[in-house]
Known about the structure:
The longest helix has 15 residues, at 66-80. Mean pLDDT is 78; it is low at 1-35. By secondary structure, the protein is an alpha+beta fold. The termini are far apart. It contains 4 helices and 7 strands.
Amino acid sequence: MKSISSLLILFILSACGSNKADQPVIIEDTVTTMADNYIWQSTLDDSTGKLQLVAVQPVPTDSTQPANVVRLINKSSIETGFAAKVRLDFIKTSGDTIYLKIDDATYLTQQMGSTGPRLFLSGVVYTLTGLTGINYVNIDFEEGDHAGPGTYSRESFKDE
């Protein structure tokens, strides 16, 4: 009877661990294919200085059209404080590329330092390239000291 009680206690204790399924997926240097789409946010790993991308918000199934996802990114940026200062405008999709424009990129290119634009752009690119058929994100804006326009992919941020 004592061994059954011990096994029962062991089973209960092992079942009380943290539920990692509820935590966001973190990707450091690799890209994984996910069935669901997410709004991604970038941070820097304190110990390595490399980008970490965290899936912070699922994209609703009925909102996976590129223009809708750009609106969700802009809305998500409100929470991080970027929206009033960096607003993405959807232009079009063509082939496997989505085209965006930032009318006023002064904050992005001049006031966020060199790390801020990297974090912002990598989050946008990971979010949009998670959409079916989108591999590249072309972002048009006036070049500044810390960021420039261009066509980005997930590979653009792989070793950062």
